[in-house]
Specification:
The structure holds two protein chains of two kinds. In chain A, a hairpin with a 2-residue loop joins strand 1 and strand 2. By secondary structure, chain A is mostly helical. In chain A, helix 2 crosses helix 7. Chain A contains ten helices and two strands; from the N terminus they run H-H-H-H-H-E-E-H-H-H-H-H. Chain A is 67% helix and 3% strand. Chain A is flat. Chain B is an alpha/beta fold. Chain B contains eleven helices and ten strands. In chain B, the strands form two sheets. In chain B, strands 6-7-8-3-9-10 form a six-stranded mixed β-sheet, sandwiched between helices. Chain B has a four-stranded antiparallel β-sheet with strand order 2-1-4-5, covered by helices on one side. In chain B, helix 3 packs across helix 4, helix 3 packs parallel to helix 5 and helix 4 packs across helix 5. Chain B is globular. The C terminus of chain B is likely disordered. The chains are: A mainly alpha, B alpha/beta. Chains A and B meet through helix 4, helix 8 and helix 9 of A and helix 2 and helix 3 of B.
């Protein structure tokens, strides 16, 4: 069903990754993704992958969940892998007409697949261990300098919080409405494309109406509690950079150093 | 042959994930044609899941649902036919309205059944009459209706499919007392006129007590009882253990009986209670003391008066 989508779902647990400052986690996620994408050889890639798996292990989240989050992108991984296999220069290992497989192609394909998979894993570590509220808090704090340029950072963060908050609600609502229309014989599983799109109308209209209703209710609720935006607003949970966070930061610095060294030291293993 | 039956029905949510939860476990029930069944149970007792398996919206993890003796999942492609035979009105059904006019919305079900425009229209008008929806409302947009009217329109949308079994999940939730009474009276009338089978899920013991012939009691995903209403309510302590209670008037009568009044502890409505108490009070007025059970007929039910 619809509620089976795990990508971007918080998994409550007690772990070093859950405790870590969300700002740090957010920056680290970007950092490892950059690492993975600037890896020039398999050794430096392995270092990046290892660093991500360290995060996965420290998150104390069942590995099953990570596998589940990979499921939706399985097709993309296979597709790009297959495509890359045939685009290699050099001696062909196997040839059939214009299709040929080379060693470089195989390596390249493996390289790209690993990159995509670890990209999802890295962001899953972030989303499994960080609640949406923490995440938007972190974004708001990180973007704060932009407020000087009159960018409405707080409003932006609030919008994100609300949007994220409503995703599960609207999913549940969609499920309910679909059940109700199915009970009246709506057929959503068969027919051509046009028919299927038409079959969505009885679901989308009630869904939009309920979304608007919820929006109005929320606006009234916020207004009656005198919400007026970010000016002078304090936080209930103030983000603190603890000594564990310094430790994580140090590990990242170490990883970066080793990564640069590996990238430079082994130019011979370069792929492209 | 029972119209609707379940055999060892079990449903597990999210099987194979860390969020696995057994919602319904080993439930076997048998419902005869024309019965009015009340379904009661604490929140999370599995009643919503159970009723959704009855019309094929949820496929049971194990066990069977039999409609007129046939397994509804024997041919999964024909599951839609089952949904027409077992009509389902969800909680707050007004949120499912979507058409331009109320009439079109009520016709949605019948049209999905493959009926012609004119047949579907006839069905819609009939269903609107059953639910007490005034005819001039049928040409309006459903979103212009009041809350109570919307609810009626949505229920009419299910009744219009002319289901053999009608399941209503708390149809009176959120209505004012008068709207509630009127709606329940209409459901009762519909049941009498059509003679079809009704399952009513409710948190109001008074409502199911007044209307249902038998009660299905659910607790923790298990069937606690499926027995005549009076019998279920005569076991008030068992009900309280699972977070339910008996109708207030029944409770009063049970306490009176304990104090030696010659009343029937299975009384379900205020009217019936009144019929029993009046003679007792008159007698009391004459003798100056509460009449003792020994002096009168033991457990004399309302039929005695």
């Amino acid at each position: 069903m619809l509620s089976d989508i795990t990508l971007g779902q918080y998994f409550p647990a007690k772990s070093p990754m859950h405790r870590a400052d969300p700002r740090l986690k957010l920056c680290l996620t970007v950092f490892v993704i950059v690492l993975i994408f600037s890896a020039a050889n398999f050794l430096s890639l392995a270092l990046g992958v290892g660093y991500i798996f360290l995060g996965v292990a420290l998150s104390r989240t069942p590995f099953k969940l990570y596998l589940k989050s990979l499921k939706p992108i399985l097709f993309i991984v296979v597709f790009t892998a297959v495509l890359n296999v045939f685009y290699g220069a050099g001696e062909p290992l196997w040839q059939w007409g214009f299709l040929k497989i080379t060693k470089a192609g195989l390596l390249n394909s493996a390289f790209v697949s690993i990159r995509i998979v670890t990209l999802i894993l890295a962001s899953s570590v972030l989303t499994f261990t960080t609640s949406p509220t923490q995440l938007t808090d972190a974004i708001e704090r990180l973007l704060k300098p932009l407020a000087k340029l009159r960018v409405p950072v707080h409003e932006f963060a609030m919008m994100m919080t609300i949007a994220l908050r409503f995703v599960p609600l609207l999913l549940e609502e969609t499920d309910k409405i679909m059940s109700a229309q199915k009970a009246r014989g709506a057929d959503m599983e068969s027919g051509g494309l046009v028919q299927r799109i038409k079959a969505l109308v009885p679901v989308l209209i009630p869904l939009f109406i309920s979304a608007f209703r919820r929006a109005f209710d929320l606006a009234t609720a916020m207004e009656s509690r005198c919400y007026h935006g970010g000016e002078g607003r304090t936080k209930m949970k103030v983000l603190r950079f603890g000594h564990e966070d310094w430790l994580i930061l140090a590990s990242a610095a170490l990883a970066l150093g080793a990564f640069i060294a590996l990238n430079l030291a082994l130019p011979g293993a370069k792929l492209r | 042959m029972p119209i609707l039956e379940t055999k060892n029905l079990t449903y597990i949510y999210g099987q194979g994930t860390p969020f696995e939860k057994t919602a319904v476990e080993d439930v076997s029930i048998s419902i005869e044609k024309g019965e009015f069944i009340g379904v009661i149970g604490h929140t999370g007792s599995g009643k919503s899941t159970l009723i959704q398996t009855l019309n094929g919206l949820i496929r049971p993890t194990s066990g069977q649902v039999l409609l007129n003796g046939h397994d509804v999942w024997a041919e999964p492609k024909k599951i839609r036919a089952v949904r027409f035979q077992v009509g389902m009105v969800f909680q707050y059904p007004e949120y499912q309205l979507f058409e331009e006019t109320v009439l079109k919305d009520i016709m949605f079900g019948p049209k999905n059944q493959g009926l012609s425009d004119s047949e579907a229209r006839d069905r819609a008008y009939e269903a609107a009459r059953f639910t007490g929806l005034r005819e001039e409302l049928l040409e309006k947009s459903p979103f212009e209706l009041s809350g109570g009217e919307k609810r009626r329109a949505a229920i009419a949308g299910v009744i219009a499919m002319d289901p053999e079994v009608l399941i209503l999940d708390e149809p009176t939730a959120g209505l004012d007392p008068r709207g509630r009474d009127v709606l329940l009276a209409q459901i009762s009338q519909y049941h009498q006129k059509r003679g079809n089978t009704i399952l009513l899920v409710s948190h109001s013991m008074e409502d199911v007590g007044r209307m249902a012939g038998r009660l299905l009691v659910m607790s923790g995903g298990h069937k606690q009882a499926l027995a005549p209403t009076k019998e279920v309510f005569s076991r008030g302590e068992d009900l309280e253990k699972i977070g339910l209670r008996v109708p207030q008037i029944t409770k009063i009568m049970q306490e009176l009986q304990k104090q030696g009044w010659p009343v029937d502890p299975g009384v379900l409505t205020v009217d019936d209670a009144l019929k029993q108490l009046m003679p007792c009070l008159i007698q009391k007025g004459q003798t100056g003391s509460a009449p003792q059970t020994q002096q009168t007929r033991e457990g004399g039910g309302r039929h005695a008066f």
